[in-house]
Amino acid sequence: MSSTSIGLGGRLYGNAILLLILTTLFWAGNAVAGRLAIGEVSPMVIVTLRWWIVAVVMGLFLWPRIRAEWPMMKPYFGRMILMAGFGFIAFNSLFYIAAYTTTAVNIGIIQGSVPIFVLIGAMLFFQTRTTLAQVIGIFITLVGVALVASKGNLEILLSLSVNPGDGIMLLACLLYSGYTLALRQRPQVSGLVFFAVLSMIAAVTSLPALWFEIATNTAQWPTFNGWMVVLYISLFPSCLAQIFFMRGVELIGPARAGVFVNLVPIFAPILAVLVLGEPFRWHHGVALALVLGGIYLSERKGSKS
Questions:
Q1: pLDDT by residue (tens digit) across 128-171?
Q2: Within a 10 A sphere around the Cβ of 156, how many other Cβ atoms?
Q3: What pTM does this model have?
Q4: How far apart are the two ends of the chain, measured CA to CA in Å?
Q5: Which of 1, 112, 198, 260 could bond to 291 as cystine, CB 3.0-4.6 Å?
Q6: DSSP 160
Q7: How many CB atoms are closer than 10 A to CB 6?
C-alpha cells in the first residue's frame, strides 16, 4: 500500500465530522436498501445473512480481543442476548418488513423519533429529570411522526387507519430505543468488541425467524441484485458505520457525536427521492421540520426544575 493511500486513510480516520457524516449517510441508505430489497430477497434472509457476514468479519479481526475481554462480558451474557434479539434482530426484521408497505421517505423521518423515545424511556425508567423545552420537544416530534403516518390527513389519524408499514416502523423504533437505553448498563469493554459479540449473538438468534420464513414458504434467497443489497447493508450500515461512529465518539465525545444522528432523517428522504424517485410531499417537509425541531429542543442543555 502506498504512503499516499495510508495518508488518506489516516486523515479520514482522524476527521470526526467526515466520519460521522458518512456514518449517518450509510444508516440513511439502509432505508433505501430496504425498498430495493423488495422482490430480490426476503426480510429474514436479509437479517440472517447481514448478521452472519458482520459476525464473521468482526470475529476475524477482533477474536484475540474478544477472548481477552470475554470474562468481563460473561456476567452480562443473558442481557446481551436480549439486546441483540430486540435491538438487532427484531428492529431490523420490522425495518425491512415495513419497507413493503411504506416509503423510504417515511421510514427515514419516523426513524428520527428514536432519540425522543430514548428520552421518554429515560424519564420513565431512570427518573431522568427534564426541562420544559424537552417536554415540548417530545410533543413536537410526536406530532411530526403522526403527520407522516396520517399522510397529512387529520381524518386518517382520527380514524386510526394508519399505513401498516408506518406502524411497524414505529414499533421498530420503540424496540431500538429500548436497546439504546440498555446500553447504559453494558459491560465496560471496548465498543468494537461489545458490538462484535452482539453481532455473533444476533447471527445465532436470527435463525429461528429464518426457519419460520422457510417453513411458511415466504423465504426468498437473494438474486444478484439481492446480494448487492445484502452486501451493502452488511458492510456499510453495519460494519463501517459502527466503526466510524465509535471513532467519532472517541474524537469529539458522545454528546457532540450524538447530534450527528439527527442527519439520518434528513439524508434518508433525500436518498429516497434521488435513488428511488419517491415523491416528497408537503406533509413530509412539515413533519421533517417538526421532528428535527423537536429533537433540537429535547437535546438543549437547559436548567432543570
A1: 777 777 778 777 777 777 777 666 666 655 555 567 888 899 89
A2: 15
A3: 0.82
A4: 57
A5: 112
A6: T
A7: 10
